[in-house]
Amino acid sequence: MSAPSLDELLGHADALPALPEIVHHVMNSLKDEEADVDTLVHHINTDPVIVSRLLAAANASAFGLSVRVDSARQAFMVLGQNRVVSIILATALIGRYDSPTAEFDSRELWRHTLGVATCARALAERFDFSPETAFTGGLLHDIGKLLMRTAAPAAYAEVLYLQQTEDVPAMTAELAVFGYDHAAAGSRLATTWNLPHEIAEAIAAHHKPDDYSSELGDLIHVANVLSHALELGDPPDKRVPDLSERACASLGLSWPNFAARFGEIEARYQGIRLLLGI
Amino acid sequence: MFSDRTRLWQTGSWRNPMKSRTIHLPILSVVPGMALALPITDHAGRTLFAAGTELDAEMLDRLNKRGVESLAAQIIDARDTETIAQELLAAELRVRKIFRGAGSPARDALQAAILRHREEGAR
Question: Rounded to a whole number, what is the distance in Å from the CA of A11 to chain B's nearest CA?
Fold first, then answer.
């Protein structure tokens, strides 16, 4: 059995549903300082799945006090921009790429990516990055795994077997079977989807940040390792990957200081899982 | 075990086994009547609610609308010292297991921070 080359794999990118328009709208409106809530609400209203998820989340947050929330605009007022954007991005991505099989549990992958996205947002708040760009980078950092599994399921089953039997990281097993890893595949897919260059580069860099010069890549790398260390959505006994000394220094990160936020990060992760129902 | 009991007796905790502990909760999981273990501040560092404040539904609604996603609450700790000791040991073994194999000094520093966090959570 032979695995597809990276170009052949990208040729199968249509095996995944296209990235929903709402993701582009959210990313553009976050970059645009002139964008207002009404514009974002207008785009949200074109996607009934997202509207219903927002309303469910807003009504779950009512503490038995507020009147019933029945519009996207009201949901914005109840939940605040951070949570609305998190719910939009996570619902848009998870809802469309959720297809668990016996060999590959995509829900597990999404729980992990939510963990990385939550860590990335907390790191971004501390180190003056855009929290929403960091959250999106965290959600998308493993999108290459989804493409490889969807376009070449038999070869990816071999990757999972190698990973389990040899206790090696995913990228080592992917290199052995495919000749490239999910970071390379994900970065190419992000470019195909016309996502911002800094996100495509951060996806490429998230396991080997020292080979790139990407500040967001450094942050997503650290967020990924932290998420594994806090066991946010990880399968049992997953080994914590190595951590780049340079990436930590480049962010100015001191673990004894940042550790004060670990409890808050764990609670925020549980909160977003509650809001999304996963 | 004996030394633990002696220390607890000396600090008075043994006579009052209903101690409290701090847990971080998503705001949706906070129940009215819970007390804050840590103060809640706004972006400018001003205190919105002091530690010890008992939260009612209206306060929780206000915090939620301000975008507060989580808070540190005080709960009663009904565990005995033996259970706490077992949880501390389990936490240490767990951290050692997931950090198996060699890594960079940065990874070692993260491991130390995670271990302290787990120990504080188990105490």
Answer: 37
